[in-house]
What does this fold into?
Amino acid sequence: MKQSVRSFAIGLFTAGILLLGGIFFFGTGGEKVEDLAAEDLIDLVEQKGYYVLNKEEYIAASVGDESKTASAETDSKEENSEQESSNKEEDSSKDQEDEATEKAKEENSDENDSEKTEKEEEKEKTSYTLKIKEGMASSDISSVLENNDIIDDAGEFNEYLIDNDYHLKVQIGEYELTTGMSHYEVAEAITK
It folds into this structure.
């Protein structure tokens, strides 16, 4: 019995030494993740069929705005390739366009001021009756408010609700909200 246990132990010891020697002399056979640049990692992940999102795209996706995220990613890639090809052409004509633009701005500044005032008045007049139902998440409420132009950024508003613990205090009911309300005012209105 002692002989078979010793033989087994010697076999394990020998196998361990051979494995260590193989790793030491031949390496692991590939690059380590820590050695790759961020761009290389993104390319590698996208080749596997996954998507890489930045923080803003992730927030938009978590709010339920996935269609904007996918189209923004596609638009971003298309814009980058178009920008690279047109940058050289734009440099030569940019000076001429700038001079023409400045003259046009001076002529249209009075018209633009009145248009901005009208747009601001329209934006201020926007009101919406928010109906909060049982089981609605704060991200759902944020996206509804953004879709109805009460808030500008659903992700930012949702973060505000969570950071200030309003997401735990949201009440079921109907609330009259208007454009121009601050995050605080909206949060206070829907938690009373």
User: Anything to note?
Assistant: The longest strand covers residues 127-132. Strands lie at 127-132, 173-178. The chain has a mean pLDDT of 76. DSSP finds seven helices and two strands in the chain.
